[in-house]
Design goal:
With 314 residues, this protein is of the alpha/beta class. The chain has helices spanning 33-41, 54-68, 91-102, 121-135, 202-224, 241-251, 263-266, 273-280, 282-288; strands spanning 9-18, 20-23, 46-49, 78-82, 110-113, 139-146, 165-172, 180-189, 233-235, 258-259, 295-301, 305-313. A hairpin with a 3-residue loop joins β11 (295-301) and β12.
C-alpha cells in the first residue's frame, strides 16, 4: 500500500558528460548496411563515442552536478552509481573510487545499482526517495554511466545505437536550487523477455514491453495521484522515432507533446537519456507550454525493466 502522505523530494544539479559525436555511418565495418539505413530512417544521425572510461565520465558529471546544485561534497549523504557496463569489483570500479576520492567524495557511502540494463536509473530514484523519507537523509547523488564497445553499439533487439556517456543529479528533501519535484514513480520487470529471439518473436517482445510500460505508468499515476490528463509532456528514451511514436499512441499523449529532439544528436545513452533530455528540453518546454510548473511523464526503459517517473518543473 502506497503512503499517500509521502515527503516531498526534489531533483537538482542535472548534468551530463558524453563522448564525441560520430556519424552512425562510421559503424559500417561492424553494423549491417541495411540496419544502418533503417536507423537513419528512424531519426538517428549521430552517436557519442568516448576515449575515456565510464568512471571518468561519471566523475566529471558528478563534479558538475555538485557545483551547479550549490552544494559541497560534505553535503552529500549517499552516492548511487548506476551502470550496466561498469563492474564495481573490477578495474573500472576501483578507478571510479579513485576519481571519487580526488573529487572529495571519499567519505560518502556508495551503492552500485545494476541488472536493469538501460532502466537502471529508475531503481536509483526509488531508492533515493525512500531513503530520504524513511532514513532522514537529505542529499543523495545519483550518477548513471556506461560505455559501449565498437561491436556492441547496436542495442538489444536492434532497438537503437548505444552511446558513451554519464548523467547525474541530486535527489533531496530540500527544495533549494530544485529543478523538478518528484511526484510519483513506478517500475515493472519481466526477465522472460530476455529469452526471446529477435526478430522471430517480435510480437511477443512488444507484448512484454506494452505490459511493462502499462504497469509502470499506472503505478506512477497512482503514486502521484494524477491521471494522463494532468501530463503536459512525455519523455521517452532516445531509441528510434517509431518507438517514440508507438509509446505516445499507447499512452494517449499527443506526439507533439513528446520530446524527441535529442535522438539525432545523442542516440541512446543507456539509462542517462532521461536526465540528458531534461537538461536540453528546457527551451522546448517553455515554447510548448504556458504553464509555470509543467508535469512531465518520464520513461526509463531497459530490455526487461520499465520505469516511469512523474515530475513537476520548478
Amino acid at each position: 500500500m502506497i503512503d499517500r502522505c509521502r515527503s516531498k523530494t526534489f531533483i537538482s544539479g542535472l548534468s551530463y558528460e558524453v563522448g564525441e559525436p560520430q556519424r552512425i555511418d562510421s559503424l559500417r565495418n561492424c553494423v549491417d548496411n541495411d540496419l544502418l539505413d533503417m536507423f537513419r530512417k528512424q531519426g538517428l544521425r549521430d552517436f557519442c563515442a568516448s576515449g575515456d572510461s565510464a568512471s571518468s565520465l561519471a566523475a566529471r558529471s558528478l563534479s558538475k552536478t555538485i557545483a551547479c546544485s550549490n552544494r559541497s561534497c560534505g553535503d552529500i549523504d549517499l552516492l548511487l552509481i548506476c551502470s550496466e557496463t561498469l563492474d564495481p569489483r573490477e578495474k573500472g570500479g576501483m578507478e571510479l573510487l579513485s576519481y571519487m576520492e580526488a573529487a572529495g567524495l571519499e567519505a560518502v557511502p556508495t551503492v552500485a545499482l545494476s541488472m536493469n540494463s538501460c532502466g537502471n536509473l529508475m531503481p536509483a530514484f526509488k531508492f533515493a526517495r525512500n531513503a530520504i523519507e524513511s532514513e532522514g537523509l537529505q542529499n543523495i547523488a545519483i550518477v548513471s554511466t556506461d560505455c559501449a564497445y565498437e561491436r556492441t553499439r547496436v542495442a538489444h533487439m536492434q532497438l537503437g545505437i548505444l552511446s558513451d556517456g554519464a548523467a547525474s543529479c541530486i535527489v533531496s528533501g530540500e527544495s533549494d536550487e530544485a529543478q523538478f519535484e518528484i511526484l510519483g514513480e513506478g517500475q515493472a520487470t519481466n526477465q522472460k523477455v530476455l529469452h526471446l529471439t529477435w526478430p522471430d518473436q517480435k510480437a511477443a517482445g512488444l507484448q512484454f514491453v506494452v505490459n511493462g510500460v502499462r504497469k509502470a505508468v499506472e503505478k506512477a499515476y497512482h503514486d502521484a495521484m494524477l491521471t494522463r490528463n494532468d501530463v503536459d509532456f512525455l519523455f521517452c528514451p532516445n531509441i528510434r522515432s517509431d518507438s517514440n511514436e508507438f509509446l505516445s499512441r499507447f499512452l494517449r499523449i499527443e506526439r507533439k507533446r513528446s520530446y524527441h529532439e535529442g535522438l539525432a544528436t545523442y542516440s541512446h545513452v543507456y539509462s542517462s537519456d532521461c536526465l540528458i533530455n531534461l537538461v536540453h528540453s528546457k527551451l522546448w518546454r517553455s515554447k510548448n507550454s504556458q504553464n509555470d510548473g509543467q508535469t512531465l511523464l518520464c520513461l526509463m526503459m531497459g530490455s526487461h525493466s520499465w520505469g516511469a517517473m512523474i515530475l513537476r518543473s520548478k
